[in-house]
């Protein structure tokens, strides 16, 4: 979302008019009110510049994040190669291939029903294999 200068300036002017009305009611001199207005306007412009730069930085960071996105894991071998934690890797290489295929398909976004139909097994078997893997991981982590 971009910084809407016009809308923010309008809100600032309404706030400033209400503040100046209160200050006049309290007997503050017009010279002091004028100095406050100049100061507050400088602060408003400083904030405006900050928010514009912040939005530019957000856009840059989003583009940078897209560039550094991890490649999608397609096979069990790619999945195992992407594991950096040595303990996790040791656990996963001891797990059977079917369970690892299920994990890879889950990472790819397949539903349990889709996984079961593609691997010619039941949904309950898919859940059970995932639960067993979770239990193994819980013991170590």
TrEMBL record:
GO terms for biological process: DNA-templated transcription initiation. It holds the Pfam family Sigma70_r4_2. InterPro entries: RNA_pol_sigma70_r4_t2, RNA_pol_sigma_r3/r4-like, WH-like_DNA-bd_sf. Gene3D superfamilies: Winged helix-like DNA-binding domain superfamily/Winged helix DNA-binding domain. One of its GO terms (molecular function) is sigma factor activity. Residues 88-137 form the RNA polymerase sigma factor 70 region 4 type domain. This is Sigma-70 family RNA polymerase sigma factor.
């Amino acid at each position: 979302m971009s910084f809407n200068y016009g809308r923010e300036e309008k809100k600032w002017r309404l706030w400033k008019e209400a503040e100046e009305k209160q200050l006049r009611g309290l007997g503050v001199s017009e010279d002091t009110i004028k100095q406050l207005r100049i100061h507050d306007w400088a602060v408003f412009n400083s904030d405006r510049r900050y928010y514009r730069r912040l939005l530019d930085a957000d856009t840059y960071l989003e583009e940078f994040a897209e560039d550094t996105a991890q490649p999608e894991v397609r096979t069990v071998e790619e999945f195992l190669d992407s594991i950096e934690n040595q303990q996790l890797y040791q656990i996963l290489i001891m797990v059977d291939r079917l369970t690892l295929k299920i994990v890879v398909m889950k990472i790819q976004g397949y539903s349990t029903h889709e996984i079961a139909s593609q691997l010619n097994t039941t949904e309950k078997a898919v859940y059970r294999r995932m639960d067993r893997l979770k239990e193994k991981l819980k013991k170590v982590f």
